[in-house]
Amino acid sequence: MRLKFVLTLLLGLTTLGAQAQAPALPVADSVAHSTRPAHGTRAALLRVAVPSVLIGVGVLAHSPKVNQTLCQAKQDFQAETQEMFRGFNAYGIDDYTRHVPLAMAYGMMATGHRGERTAVGFTLIYLVAHELDEGVVSHLKRYTAEPRPYNPQELTSFPSSHTSQAFLTATLLHEQYGRQYPWLSVSGYAVATATGAMRVLGNKHWATDVLAGAAIGFLSAETVWHAYPALTKLLPQKLAHKLLLVPSYSPAGGAGLAMGLQL
């Protein structure tokens, strides 16, 4: 079934992230040593190429004027999905599941489990990655003006913001705790995949919207995560030590976390 194919592509992004965290194996000889850099380069290129292809396919499929075959395949898939899951209603659960991996990460930090980055570092990475993700998604929504499956008058379908946020937070959870607690990576990506699936089953998005959204979220998280060491060097050392992460609450937004500066 085509739905299985889409879910397989979504889950495929999780394996790309796992490759980035694969523990280094001992080098047996000089031959093995000489092949490791090439393997690392191929893995890095693959982690960029696959999501980029998914985004490109989504852009090409957004209009029959651009690519008739892809656009028709997208519409056929949606019709088949709606036929099989007629009346599906997520009851707004997908509005919350996109944030679950992030909540899991902070839950681990709050209970004393140390991750790859400090709480302040993790938060800085999330904030920058979130802005990058939102910027790319909003620009693509304006550029493509893709009609929603359920409402042709609403031109904000491509890409799926819910899915991009879900995969962004799942990827950050994976990078923060995946090496120590693989089950957290599995759980985070499972929730992200379920979020994307609910967007399609609920007829809120085309499958191409979800695949592109997942790719954008993944790339945003990976880009900022791996650039973080270089970014921290731009901060004055004294300022970096004075950054604090504190609980916050507002009547409109509820409980959360805020970044502060210790004077």
TrEMBL record:
<feature type="signal peptide">
    <location>
        <begin position="1"/>
        <end position="20"/>
    </location>
</feature>
<dbReference type="Pfam" id="PF01569">
    <property type="entry name" value="PAP2"/>
</dbReference>
<dbReference type="InterPro" id="IPR000326">
    <property type="entry name" value="PAP2/HPO"/>
</dbReference>
<dbReference type="InterPro" id="IPR036938">
    <property type="entry name" value="PAP2/HPO_sf"/>
</dbReference>
<feature type="domain" description="Phosphatidic acid phosphatase type 2/haloperoxidase">
    <location>
        <begin position="120"/>
        <end position="225"/>
    </location>
</feature>
<protein>
    <submittedName>
        <fullName>Phosphatase PAP2 family protein</fullName>
    </submittedName>
</protein>
<keyword id="KW-0732">Signal</keyword>
